Amino acid sequence: MGGGDTAIEEALFLSKLVNSVKVIHRKNKLKASTIMQQKAFNNDKISFLWNSVVTEVVGSDKVEGIRVKDTLSGDTLDIKTDAIFVAIGHKPNTEIFDGQLELDEKSYIRRYDGSKTNIKGVFVAGDAYDYKYRQAITAAGSGCRAALDAIKYLESKE
Q1: Buried b / exposed e along 104-125 (16+ C-beta atoms within 10 A)
Q2: Among 68, 18, 80, which residue's Cα sits nearest to residue 44?
Q3: What angle, 0 to 180 degrees and rounded to 10, lies between the N-to-C axes of helices 34-41 and 5-14?
Q4: pLDDT tens, 51-108?
Q5: How far apart are CA 146 and CA 35, in angstroms?
Q6: Domain ranges in the chain?
Q7: In the CATH scheme, what is the code of domain 95-156?
Q8: DSSP-based helix, strand, coil % in the chain, nearest 5
């Protein structure tokens, strides 16, 4: 789901692992870069469902399908599937820190020397600073690093 570079990058990646990928996008054109769009349009495993949004995931114990609504007509369509992947881009939820912590031009918290921020005793982890990998496993690792850095900082205050 989605139409930006993140969604198309994920669709291209998934197309190497599955029989087919359906990109569901709420608009009638993509926001992804031209080269990413061309790669997706030229990939026989990727199809597009325009002006649509997923309204429901169907299944009791596992994903069995999705219900999709056409944003123009209001019609719904049920699609059988074994899995869904949401790839709608990424904007860090860091507004609360604006004016307090140093943020970069994309609103990610700037990180120095491990997990330190520009304020002594404040540490950052995960998607608040990581614009590149944005994975649970890397966020967990950076969370551990920030916790260890915080412990070291607190122990130095005694």
Answers
A1: eeeebbebeeebbbeeeebbbb
A2: 18
A3: 30
A4: 999 999 999 889 999 999 999 999 999 999 999 988 766 778 899 999 999 999 989 9
A5: 37
A6: 5-80, 95-156
A7: 3.50.50.60
A8: 30, 20, 50
- Beta-bridged to residue 23, according to DSSP, are 48
Residue 19 CA to residue 17 CA, distance in Å, equals 7
pLDDT per residue as tens digits for the range 13-63? 999 999 999 999 999 999 889 999 999 999 999 999 999 999 999 998 899
CATH architecture, domain defined by 5-80? 3-Layer(bba) Sandwich (3.50)
Quote the CA–CA distance of 31 and 3 in Å, as a whole number.
6
Which residues, 6 or more positions from 157, have their beta carbon under 8 angstroms from its beta carbon?
none
Cα–Cα distance for residue pair 126/134, rounded to 1 Å: 7
- Output the six-digit token pair for 136: 């649970």
CA distances from 66 to 6, 29, 126 (A): 21, 22, 30
How many CA within 13 A on the CB side of residue 2?
17
